[in-house]
Amino acid sequence: MGSILDIYTGYFGLSARPFAIAPDPDMLYWSNAHRRAYSLMEYAIVTRAPITLVTGEVGSGKTLLVQHLLRNVGDDVVFGLVSQVRGKAEDVLPWVLLALGEPAEPEDTMVDLFSRFEERLIREYAAGRRVVLVFDEAQNLSDTALEQIRTLTNMNTGTDELLQVFLVGHSSLKERIVGTILQPLAQRIGAACHLPAMDAETTGEYVRHRLRSVGGNDDIFTDDAVDLVHEHSGGLARLVNQLCDFSMVYAFSKGNPQVDDLTVMQVINDGVFFAGQALLPPAAREEVMHIPVFRSRATPQD
């Protein structure tokens, strides 16, 4: 017997789950904002911008865009993806070295770590390659750690940058960097882009794109359903995915060939779409009704 996901995708004639939460570069939707951001990121690499800042709301697709960049830049670029650093400046270099496949032992001094990092940069430069470090979730870094990253980008040959850095994080990161303490870092940023939440029209295009990507029809979601998805997700791709995924499960459970606005509202009222509750004002959360919705597919609909 197939799993619930096999049944759900098969019921709608889909080759895979269209609204999975995990980032999938093959499912990337190129909104105008994503195209602008990606073009700027490519331009930053070509022009050897020392630091590039990529910000966006939670779930806006920043990580997905970075993953696409990692997969599609030429062999003359060596990437190191750093996503584990939490705060202290002394934590930065070990994670950077590990991201580049270099050893970093607990007994290594900062001098040892820096020397090993510098040697790697010079080696790559001599081979005609550039090193790009991507710090994902960079809003978690302390000001001291961000300042240390800035100092790493000072390494150059006199004419060429040996290292480029992408700082990828929430919108709050930009606000921190423009503050007085991090002004030296702000002055090293050669390019910056921001991924906003999707508007209603873009949300509709996004939903239809995800359905088409797995062999589905545009009309699986009615227009009213998409409008409701946008309203309750705030246009954030991650939340759109969650609400659409639950809505398709509900529609399947009731034997409905389409996801309509009633089905989406039932998901919301049931409290299943928990992340979306945070977008509602407190009074609206109090008014949410919990209406049982799962029924046998053999049960006649009201």
From TrEMBL:
SMART domains: AAA (SM00382). InterPro entries: AAA+_ATPase, AAA_22, ExeA_AAA_ATPase_DNA-bind, P-loop_NTPase. Gene3D superfamilies: P-loop containing nucleotide triphosphate hydrolases (3.40.50.300). Pfam families: AAA_22. Signal peptide: none annotated. Residues 48-202 form the AAA+ ATPase domain. PANTHER family: GENERAL SECRETION PATHWAY PROTEIN A-RELATED, PHOSPHORIBULOKINASE _ URIDINE KINASE FAMILY. This is AAA family ATPase. It comes from Paragemmobacter ruber. The lineage of its organism: Bacteria, Pseudomonadati, Pseudomonadota, Alphaproteobacteria, Rhodobacterales.
